[in-house]
Amino acid sequence: MSDSKIIKAIKDKGKTLEAEMSFFDHLEALRWHLVRASVAIVVFTVVVFYYYDWIFSTIIMGPSKSTFWTYRMLCKLGAALHRDGFCIDNVNVHLINTEMAGQFTLQINSSLIIGITLGVPYLIWEIWRFIKPALHEAERKAATGFVFYACILFFLGITFGYFVITPMSINFLSSYTVSTAIQNLFDIDSYISSVATLTLATGVVFQLPILVYILANLGIMTPKFMKETRRYAIVVILIIAAVVTPTPDMLTMTVVSIPLFVLYEVSIVVAGLVEKRKIKKELEFNKGN
Q1: Are 244 and 256 in contact (CB under 8 A)?
Q2: Are residues 285 and 166 in the same domain?
Q3: Which residue range(s) make up the domain with 243?
Q4: At 96, is the secondary structure helix, strand, or coil?
Q5: Whole-angstrom distance, CA of residue 217 vs CA of residue 147
Q6: Rounded to whole angstroms, how far apart are CA atoms 65 and 177?
Q7: What are the CA-CA distances from residue 195 to residues 1, 48, 177, 216 (Å)?
Q8: Which residues partner with 96 through β-bridges?
């Protein structure tokens, strides 16, 4: 092998090692971001575990009590409209524990779920700090406020899920029977899982504008497509509202479906703004050439 080939091979190997080191450096940076986020989640979990008695009786068990805020507001709404069927005087939830260590693991698992929920904003911020250096200046400006809006939408979704979707679903499912010979006795894990799933799932659903923003920037989602499929979205939203509402009354279904309609329309606006910005950039680029 000639000297030039040897030197070229050494240079290529050096570039490969440099790329590998850069890759592992990124992994190391990501690891520390995730470690810090994990520490925050652990801190929140410990705090929740310490105050668990109040959190369990007030927050976790709240939707299973007829004195819950949502049930009281529905009753007041029914009285104001002079309509029957809005008041929920009894939520038929009877919980049991079937495992020896069930209540202990319940406290640990539910504390961890709440800890993760509270730690989501910090986790999003750490992930943003990791991604931000890799973005161009224009991309950074376009993504300004990403963490703020993502967190706001997440907690709006959590609030809507906890105060609207969860209590209405629990009231409906706990009262539903196929036969009077079957008594509803719910395992505590099933109840916790239902509350957590309904609440967190709504928080994730409320990230739709953020998802549409990303897809629109990638050219996958357009406002035209979303407008054309609006009628299908309306049908899906109405089906969801019909399932979770405690009565077949259209007004109650509307209370549930309106925020979901608004969310979809906001996503269309977001996609439209992204498209306008792309067109503007293309025009500026063409003028420059």
Answers
A1: yes
A2: no
A3: 207-289
A4: strand
A5: 17
A6: 19
A7: 70, 17, 20, 33
A8: 187
